[in-house]
C-alpha cells in the first residue's frame, strides 16, 4: 500500500517536472497523462477499501483522461496544421525564432 502511494507520488513529481521543463505541446500532453496515472496510482489503495466506489471513481478518471487526450490532441493537430510547429516559444514569438 505504501509502495503504490510512493510510486504515484514519484509519477506526479515526474509529470510536474515535465510540465515545467517542456516547450513542446506533445511533451506537455504526455506529462499531463503521467500526472493522471500518478494520481490513479496514489488513489488505488484508498479506493480499494470500498471496491464499488473505487470502480466508479476509476471509470470516471479514465474517461476524463481519454476525453482530455482527445481534446488536447485535436488542439495540437490544428495548431500544427496552421503553424507547422508545436513549440510553444515559437508560437508565442510568431515564428520569428530561428
How would you describe this protein?
The radius of gyration is 17 Å and the shape is elongated. The model has no long low-confidence stretch (mean pLDDT 88). The protein has helices at residues 2-21, 25-47, 51-83, 88-93. It is an all-alpha fold. The chain contains four helices and no strands. Helix 1 (2-21) runs antiparallel to helix 2 and helix 2 runs antiparallel to helix 3.
Poorly predicted regions are none
N- and C-termini, Cα separation: 50 Å
The biggest sheet amounts to:
none
The residue fraction in helices comes out at over 70%
Strand content: under 5%
What's the quick description here?
The chain has helices spanning 2-21, 25-47, 51-83, 88-93. The chain is mostly helical and 98 residues long.
List the helices and strands and how they pair.
Blueprint: H1 2-21, H2 25-47, H3 51-83, H4 88-93
Helix pairs in contact: 1-2, 2-3
Amino acid at each position: 500500500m505504501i509502495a503504490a502511494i510512493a510510486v504515484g507520488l514519484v509519477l506526479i513529481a515526474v509529470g510536474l517536472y515535465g510540465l515545467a521543463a517542456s516547450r513542446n505541446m506533445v511533451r506537455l500532453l504526455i506529462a499531463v497523462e503521467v500526472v493522471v496515472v500518478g494520481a490513479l496510482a496514489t488513489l488505488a489503495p484508498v479506493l480499494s477499501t470500498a471496491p464499488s466506489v473505487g470502480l466508479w471513481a476509476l471509470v470516471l478518471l479514465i474517461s476524463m483522461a481519454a476525453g482530455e487526450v482527445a481534446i488536447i490532441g485535436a488542439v495540437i493537430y490544428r495548431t500544427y496544421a496552421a503553424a507547422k510547429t508545436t513549440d510553444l516559444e515559437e508560437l508565442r514569438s510568431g515564428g520569428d525564432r530561428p
